[in-house]
Specification:
Layout lengths: L2 H18 L19 H11 L5 H26 L3 E2 L2 E2 L1 H5 L1 H20 L5 H26 L9 H27 L4 H28 L9 H4 L5 H6 L8 H19 L5 H15 L14
Antiparallel strand pairs: 1-2
Helix pairs in contact: 1-2, 1-3, 2-3, 2-7, 2-12, 3-5, 3-6, 3-7, 5-6, 6-7, 7-8, 8-11, 8-12
Amino acid sequence: MDLTNNALSRLNRRLKDCFFNDETLRSFVDDGYFWSGQGFRGQLSMRAGTCFNLPEEHLLEIALFTELLHNASLVHDDIVDSDHERRGQQTVWHKYGLSKALLVGDLLIAKAFEIASSSAIDSSIKSKWTLSLSNAVSVAVRGALCELDFKLSETDDLFSRYLSMAYDKTGVMFTLPISCVGQAARLEDAEIKKLTEVFAKLAVAYQIRDDEADYLGNKTGRATMSDIVNDRPNLYYLLSKSEEHAPDLFKHASHFHEKLINEAEVGLEAFPNSLTLMTRELVLPFVQLTKSPDPSCNLAC
């Protein structure tokens, strides 16, 4: 499958069609907020699927409902954090108002379920996809609530508490496409669990780098340090308030980040080598925030 051009172009067209063909979403089809990202999760869906020789049409569907749900989570997250900017664009709530943003986010969730449930794939796989979508929404909400209520006691292990919160908050949008690919490939449940654990670790590694950018005030697409302003559990902010970790907070964060990546790479050894190569080529650069996975892709990140 020629992922670099044809498949990604088809995914972009399918996403645009979702907006054009819906009377409500059509009003937002030209809003740069939805089209100015890197489309990483859509690419992950399709690149991971090629490692298991899945049909392009099924991978496009996974990529499509993953991107729709991810965009819904961003719209809602911006409301929760009162952020005015994302991806260098005005956030939906700031531009159109809280009520419209909330409803648009809800509609994108509904569209994700529509794509999954209307697939021509075997009904048993389709059922698993819709269940995975439902679980992703539940876990994301749990993670968001945990973030809002996050507090540390003197007896807590800071890294363990952060890891648990980040698994839900960030990990679910990394593991959703992976679990759906595994289901379409008819992997055993135990294999899918191992695979999602790998990508959950990579998701937390990404969150650490994202926290660092916010803490340093150089996060791309935003003019303010949102985590600190909103008192969110940013790893660097938490470390800076810890007597034990504050003197070497960047060292501690870096060690934790490297540990997660190393554990993920070890976990990948149980799967086809092509999956390891894909991870090194696509996922690790994204996790490290070193470069865009594909500069030619203009899908929403």
